[in-house]
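Hi support team,

I submitted a single chain yesterday and got back a structure, but I'm not sure I'm reading the token output correctly. Could someone confirm the output below corresponds to the sequence I sent? I've pasted both exactly as they appear in my results page.

Thanks,
R.
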Amino acid sequence: MRLATWNVNSIRARIELVVAWAERVAPDVLLLQETKVATDQFPADSLVSLGYHVTHWGTGAWNGVAVLTREAPREVRYGTGFARAPLATEEPRALAVRLEAGWFMSVYVPNGRALDDPHYVYKLTWLAELRAHLADLVADGVVVGGDFNVAPSDHDVWDPSALEGATHVSLPERRALDALLGLGLTDVYRALHPDDPGFTWWDYRQGAFRRGMGMRIDLVLASEDIARNVVAVDVDIEARRAPRPSDHAPLVVDLA
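Hi R., thanks for writing in. Yes, this is the structure output for that exact sequence:
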């Protein structure tokens, strides 16, 4: 099985890129984030034509998550509370589908903005809620992939001193991520690549991509029964080099 996660930063702006990439890489499960489109406007047809079942939750403008699968989902759950239908009171940031192998979840963790911003508190609360509900899924086998907006350690950023006092690297955020791993989940990239930075995001500004000023904030966390079958994990840098790219690169995971 091949699994990938990708913050596409607007699916309508990137649909041709996503289709061409999916044809080339052929993931069996593709987790998308920041689709920025309402569900009834999601450009599903071109992805369905590639053989995918498309499950999407979005309300337009911001946020939005999707799970594309070769296998028809057996069950779908929405949000950190895993409702069986979309909730108008919750931002579309977490979407899980159940397949034969277990649960596959796409997450788009709140950015946090700044340490003194209410959105930072929201981010920590959201991560705590995610952990509480993931605890019920680990026994069934679960993969959680997406834009976590947290760099797990200083090794995951180009220059820790440049981000001092900023979000994505603060101790409370990293502890919240550690709490997810404490459920028995494995950060599969770092497990296979203990020394490589593995950056997945580069700002559009200041020539950040060309200058290597990136962060590893797109992660795949897998329960032990699934993580033990991971044979390869790679960041697809070529997708970031494409014309009009997302500021994120896809993370691709191969399982035996």
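A quick pointer for reading it: DSSP finds eight helices and 14 strands in the chain. Let us know if anything else looks off.

Best,
Support desk
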